[in-house]
């Protein structure tokens, strides 16, 4: 597989002197590679204890890209390689880069270095340059917070919780239906001695019919309820 490869030295302390010949094309897709020697004051750097080596890029239009796919070549000598993403090369002009090394609970930044992205004449379609830094940084932070956690257990617990909530809602609805005692009545011009049923259907809810007359108590010796085809009956209170 053919790559456009440049080898550069990047130092933790000393300013990095990037060769002016480091140039990539805007249309380089999965083919622009940096071979990086990470050094400390000009000497080789043992990164065998590093847990991650990442890079961030600031493009000429001010947007940023974050790449966490630095591949080790020789960790004992601090040698890594990275293939630049299409979005990293989306903006024509100077690109500034920096390497971030995570080692135990420490993060070390190298000095910045740069390269140039030239315009490609092979296509009229311009690649839209976007800012990916914020989104990817949040994903990384979320991953660090969940490190060592039982992800499968969390997902399973969430599924069980959702199922339990659904079951509670169904049970609550069933109990609400059971708690309502409904009786359909046809009534006459008045409750006492009614002889004809009106066409109005009255739905009485609850355990008592006292609310039929808007009272809290009824005298059972005075009030009777007319039921079509059954005659009258005392109102239970």
TrEMBL record:
Gene3D superfamilies: 2.60.40.3350. InterPro entries: BppU_N. Residues 5-142 form the BppU N-terminal domain. This is BppU family phage baseplate upper protein. It comes from Bacillus thuringiensis serovar andalousiensis.
């Amino acid at each position: 597989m053919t790559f456009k490869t440049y080898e550069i030295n990047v130092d933790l302390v000393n300013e990095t002197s990037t060769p002016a010949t480091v140039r990539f094309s805007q249309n380089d897709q999965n083919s622009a590679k940096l071979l990086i020697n990470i050094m400390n004051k000009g000497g080789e750097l043992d990164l065998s204890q590093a847990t991650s080596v990442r890079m961030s890029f600031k493009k000429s239009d001010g947007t940023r890209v974050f790449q966490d796919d630095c591949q080790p070549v020789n960790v004992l000598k601090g040698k890594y390689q990275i293939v630049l993403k299409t979005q990293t090369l989306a903006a024509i002009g100077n690109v500034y880069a920096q390497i971030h090394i995570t080692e135990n609970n420490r993060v070390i930044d190298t000095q910045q270095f740069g390269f140039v992205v030239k315009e490609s004449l092979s296509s009229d379609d311009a690649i839209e340059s976007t800012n990916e830094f914020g989104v990817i940084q949040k994903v990384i932070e979320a991953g660090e917070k969940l490190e060592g956690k039982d992800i499968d257990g969390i997902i399973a617990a969430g599924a069980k919780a959702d199922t339990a909530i659904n079951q509670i809602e169904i049970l609550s609805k069933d109990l609400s239906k059971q708690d309502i005692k409904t009786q359909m009545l046809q009534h006459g011009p008045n409750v006492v001695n009614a002889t004809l049923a009106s066409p109005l259907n009255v739905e009485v809810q609850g355990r008592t019919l006292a609310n039929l007359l808007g009272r809290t108590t009824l005298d059972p010796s005075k009030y009777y309820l007319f039921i079509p085809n059954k005659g009258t009956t005392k109102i239970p209170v």
